[in-house]
Structure formats: structure tokens, C-alpha cells
Amino acid sequence: MMFSPLAALAVFVACASAITITSPGASQSWTNNGEQTITWTAVQTDPQNFAITLTNTNTTLIPTVDNNQVLKALVDTSTGTTTVSPPASGWPSPGGSYRVNFCNSTEDLSTIYAQSDPFNIVAAAVQSDSSTATSQTLASTPTTPATTPTGSATVTDAGDASGSGSSSAPASTGSSAAPPALGIHTGFVSVLVVLGAFLA
Ligand SMILES: *[C@@H]1O[C@H](CO)[C@@H](O)[C@H](O)[C@H]1NC(C)=O
Ligand SMILES: *[C@@H]1O[C@H](CO)[C@@H](O)[C@H](O)[C@H]1NC(C)=O
């Protein structure tokens, strides 16, 4: 008789913790560039949806009030996988001991259904990440700087990667745009010189 409440609680906990986060984890890191993938397994009795947060016991790495950075709300449990975009402030500093939590909702982050193993967020290589890191989302990006001299995509990438590169990116695209204009101008002057020599 005394044991039945405890038994009921044990069953509830077992059901509530049936969601298992399979990635990220000890051997599946994230990079600090672009969308990242989360996968999990679940059973019928699990909640139908949840909210995803990023957390770290080192509070300097997740500097929000409750050490929880909300990544996504109302994720459908049955899909088993989702991608999360960087927070508005970008991914936190590369480092270890990050964890992903599946919570009841953005209003109830303290009810945690599942927690990932600790994983690393590693710095994406600034030059090669566009071709290797997230091939689906960045597939169109490499062609953009090549064809359009405005460089808006380049500026965004530089800001994500370094946070301080936004002022250097326009300068480099500006200087690459300058030589053709200079070349046209020089050509025009030399035509005038030839024309002047011909008239004299
Ligand atoms: C927390 O992270 C910061 C930045 O990476 C690091 O300097 C500091 O040593 C870390 N603190 C602990 C307790 O690991
Ligand atoms: C989770 O949130 C829902 C409302 O969205 C609430 O009805 C439910 O009781 C919560 N579950 C837990 C275990 O707190």
C-alpha cells in the first residue's frame, strides 16, 4: 500500500523520459555556423511536442537569465529530427559541455523531457565551411558573391563567423570592384592620347 504512489511516480518518470536525443552528443558536434541538426527517438506515450533549448553549466557561455537559450518552440515529436537556426546573437563561443534540452514549452523550460549528452560546438573554418559544413543550406551561397558584386551574402557570413568582419568584407568587395572601373578609365584616357597624337 505504501509503495503504490512511488510505483505510479516511477511509471510516470519512465514515460516522461522516453524521448532520447541521439544527436548532438559526445561524437556529434555542432559548428558555430548555420543550421544545426537534432535527432531523437520517441514512443507513442511521449508528449506530442516540445521546445528545444541550448544550455551549458558554464554560464558565461550561455549568458541568458536562466542559462537556457531557446532554439525552437513547438517541435513535433513524431518527426524524429529537426534543424535549428542560430539564435539572433549567433551561436555561442566554441567550447565543450553544451547540452540540448527538450522542454515542455517555452513557458515551462523547467519541465525537461530529455537532455542530450554533452557536446562540443566547434569553430567552423571560415573559408571552407561554405562548401562542407551545411551543404543544403549553403549550396546557393557560394554562387552569390561570384555573380553579384553587392556582397550582401558575404557580409552576413563574415558577421556570423567572426562578429567583427563586417567592416572588412565590404572593403574587400569594393576594392575588387574598383580595378575594372580604373581599367575602363585608363583605356578611355589612352584613346584620348592616341586621338590627340593623331590630330597633332
Ligand atoms: C567558461 O567559459 C569561459 C569561456 O570559454 C572560460 O574562459 C572559463 O574558463 C569557463 N569556466 C569554467 C568553469 O569552465
Ligand atoms: C506541459 O505543458 C502543458 C501545456 O502546454 C500542460 O498542460 C502540461 O501539464 C505540462 N506538462 C508538464 C509535465 O508540466
From TrEMBL:
It holds the Pfam family Kre9_KNH. Coiled coil: none annotated. InterPro entries: GPI-anchor_Adhesion_Reg, Kre9/Knh1-like_N. Residues 1-18 form the signal peptide. Keywords: Signal. Residues 23-121 form the Yeast cell wall synthesis Kre9/Knh1-like N-terminal domain. Residues 131-177 are annotated as: Disordered. This is GPI-anchored small secreted protein. The lineage of its organism: Eukaryota, Fungi, Dikarya, Basidiomycota, Agaricomycotina.
